[in-house]
């Protein structure tokens, strides 16, 4: 009967979750907070539809292990090296300062230093799953604030390992003080080194043998077995199962099979993680929120505002503009999913009282629910803050103070906003034809490197009128917005068009839905990456069909002149006809007994001369004769495969079957 109760509870959870997620989808909200809402609704503190809460929590614990396993698989040491400065400086300062500030506030409120430090750990971590999914869905993962937030989240993932080792010492469950803690950290280092050796020596050979079987089931079992054994090994060494799961994922990520393993595990991970968030919602008590509404609301505001302020320091020191620093900080201002795991462990170790635990659950859940709105309304909120106080003055960082040294009076020049790959390539092309140009970039380090190479690059936010004026926008021939931030691109186009009504503005965008708004704001040309890729692909395909370069160019010009309207027509884009490409087809024609060509050779049919169609193969019984020779004689029942244009195939059918006289 116990199994039936658990099955009924799961059915209720998934039914309510389905309804809640559909509502969230209708309002374009991410699904993860929806599971928290579903958990609140079905839990014992609301509708009371689920009774076996402890069994659901057991399944949720499996979800946490799978979460860390897949985070380990998605984590990449090469990715860490690529985002080294953002992760080390931005993430290090965010984690360190957040822990310090939160612990200091908790200590001032009278809590023991161990509890205060533990609360700092809880507040410092953000939601990797929620933020990265939101950025990906909005196409903002490559924006400056998106890259910064990703670097901070990567550093937080790394910090999970030492935090998990320190928590038992804070609770006094591990004796020996600092020497014992150092010993535990030493054990962790040995475990990591051992796992690294396993990743380089054993795992590739093991998976190579398994893949020879071409069995997906065997591969999946091997992946799960590797994760289980590694988790059990770390637990036996005194660490936690979750740490072992993370290290096991890291082992697979450094092999050639990480992508396939992640693809196989994602469905399981998503189901169990959904249960994890539902379980969190079931633990939230309405009574606590009802009796302490101002405490819960104040905690949410304090966490969001405090983490935003603290997390903006690192990007500012890296040289990013105040606006970008605050946007990145807003992205990581919530409390993350792993903090729930730590909080549960802290309650079990008596680091948190029940009332403190409930307060944390309420605050953390609401910060995650608010995050989608921060993702959507962050740019507008930052614009409002800048009207009150310029963010570059509040967060000066190590940036170039002025753009005045750009003020050699340029005229008829090109302003390149953004010095990424597109900006560098455009600068190289303009340099080749000796056309005057200036580049404006928000990353001070990029500006310093470019200027060291002799580039006319300057630090500044091209969405601001004073920056564009300093770059000579009123005298410029052209502005090219080569950045990955849709909101900033729209502002830049609007401000630039107001400064110079005759300037030609080219805007880059990731998605075609941005085109109408950018054109309305004043852009002359909008280049959507997704359709330009499509054009390049079909241009090369048409070239393989022998279509002339002139005809391909004509088709490309036609598509771009209509703002890609031909490619936006739905599932079947309408491109019209292309000259020089015959509408070829194939047909199978069976030779009847009354055909006049029975017993005659292919050459004697004169099929190509009389109809234009061509016999490419003949099937006789179970044999296929490809490209029959001219002397090959046809017989009754032969099945001829004939190619040609539709009208040619009709004429060939009539001729071979004696329909035509």
Q: What does the model show?
A:
This protein is an alpha/beta fold and 661 residues long. The protein folds into three domains: 387 residues, Na+/H+ antiporter like fold; 120 residues, NAD(P)-binding Rossmann-like Domain (Rossmann fold, 3-Layer(aba) Sandwich); 72 residues, Regulator of K+ conductance, C-terminal domain (Alpha-Beta Plaits), CATH 3.30.70.1450. Helix content is 64%, strand content 7%. It has 29 helices and ten strands. The strands form two sheets. The chain has a six-stranded parallel β-sheet, sandwiched between helices. Strands 7-10-8-9 form a four-stranded antiparallel β-sheet, covered by helices on one side. Helix 14 packs across helix 18. The chain is globular, with a radius of gyration of 32 Å. The model has no long low-confidence stretch (mean pLDDT 78).
